[in-house]
Amino acid sequence: MGGVKIGIAIIIAICAINPAFTMLFAKEHTMIQIAGGSNGVFGTIVAVLTFILLYKIDIKNIHVKNALARVSLLSLDMYLCCYIFDKIFYPYFIERYFINQAQFGIYFFVIVPLVFIASLLTAQLKEWAFKAVLKK
Q: Distance between CA atoms of 38 and 50, rounded to whole angstroms?
């Protein structure tokens, strides 16, 4: 269990670097990528640790297990279309609610679930459409 706690602590620390630096030192700028973006070394470390930690979880609830399996099966399509929803939701919220980066950070908890759900629904619709076309 100690390894799990260390893994979670590393993920939290890496994820906190950019927002903490921005809130402390960059008041009039958008978020500065001190630790790199999600496609950099630190993003890779977070992704690998997240998957290792998720792999260690023994899920007993069949509904949760099925939901996670569905997301897992759709994850590539979700990843491929999430850019579209990023380009829709972020400008919308920035136009209406952006004052400074520190204040705007609260909208992260609104935008990320919106992007996730929209990407999930789009990926599922794409899968159903492909299955319908292939049956004919």
A: 13
Q: Residue-wise over 46-72: b if at least 16 C-beta within 10 A, else e?
A: beebeeeeeeeeeeeeeeeeeeeeeee
Is there a contact between 122 and 74 (Cβ–Cβ < 8 Å)?
Answer: no
Report d(CA 115, CA 20) in Å as an integer.
23
The two structure tokens encoding residue 112: 């990320």
In whole angstroms, what is the distance from residue 88 CA to residue 85 CA? Answer: 5
pLDDT beneath 50, residues of the chain:
none
Scanning the structure block, which residue is given the tokens 């979670």?
8
CA geometry: angle at 43 spanning 119 and 116, to 5°?
Answer: 15
**CA neighbours within 13 Å on the CB side: how many for 19?**
11
SS3 call for 98 = coil
pTM score of the predicted model: 0.66
Burial class (CB in 10 A: 0-12, 13-18, 19+), 111: middle
pLDDT at 48: 87
How is residue 36 annotated by DSSP? -
